[in-house]
Design a protein that fits this description.
Blueprint: H1 2-6, H2 9-13, H3 19-28, H4 31-49, H5 54-64, H6 67-79, H7 81-84, H8 90-99, H9 103-113, H10 117-120, H11 124-136, H12 138-149, H13 152-160, H14 164-177, H15 181-193, H16 195-198, H17 202-216
Helix pairs in contact: 3-5, 4-5, 4-6, 5-8, 6-9, 8-11, 11-12, 11-14, 12-15, 13-14, 14-15, 14-17
């Protein structure tokens, strides 16, 4: 059955209904039987990641794949994570991989995204990826926040941005929870110094409200 299904793998995995047949195989059959389906997932991963339905199918495949094939798939996704993070559907796959909290893969993704965190924070999908970078690992929050606070004016602009403000809020919360005071305190200082500007925008006011809440906690 899996051999037959693999002959139309991409068409099936990008079909809203048909994909559930392959997903059932992944969930119910043993690893040996599913090896051919895993190989096709690796082969088609980039096309699937960029497809509205395929990205969800790929994420479910990631949940079931194991062994060397899992390592191969995750590493290939990480290698093009900078491309996928900017894709309207691919960003969901990057988020999902970050949620696995695999330190090796996470560091590889961070390496590919470094220098892009600010720009990604200004897009809908990209901002969610940056939030996951901050949320899922301590070194992830360090990489992102260092890039943000390196330019105080950018920090204020992001705080006023309708997507970027969520990244700033996530950074404030996580650096405090993780007791990364060498990052938290400079971020707070920049926001306090720019409070007049922040108070002039709806998103900025959200950031100031969170800042006040954290200081009172």
């Amino acid at each position: 059955m899996t051999t037959i299904l693999s002959s139309r793998y991409y068409l099936i995995m990008t079909h809203e209904v048909a994909r559930h047949v392959i997903l059932q195989c992944l969930n119910l059959l043993d690893r040996k039987s599913n090896e051919i389906l895993y190989e096709y997932a690796i082969y088609y991963f980039l096309d699937l990641a960029r497809h509205e339905v395929g990205c969800r199918s790929l994420n479910e495949c990631i949940n079931s794949i194991a062994g060397n094939q899992r390592d191969t798939l995750l590493n290939r996704i990480a290698d093009v994570s900078d491309f996928l993070a900017n894709d309207p559907y691919g960003n969901y796959v990057v988020q999902h991989v970050l949620e696995l909290r695999n330190n090796v893969i996470t560091k590889k993704i961070l390496f590919h995204l470094q220098g892009q965190f600010i720009q990604l924070s200004k897009t809908k999908g990209g901002s969610h990826v940056v939030e996951k970078c901050i949320e899922t690992s301590k070194f992830g929050s360090s990489w992102v926040v260092k890039e943000i606070i390196d330019c105080p004016k950018t920090t204020i602009r992001l705080s006023q941005h309708h997507f970027g403000n969520f990244v700033i809020q996530k950074a404030l919360v996580r650096t405090k929870i993780e007791k990364q005071m060498h990052l938290h305190e400079p971020l707070v200082k920049i926001l306090e110094q720019g409070s007049d500007d922040l108070d002039c925008s709806k998103c900025g006011k959200f950031v100031l409200a969170l800042l006040k809440e954290l200081q009172e906690a």
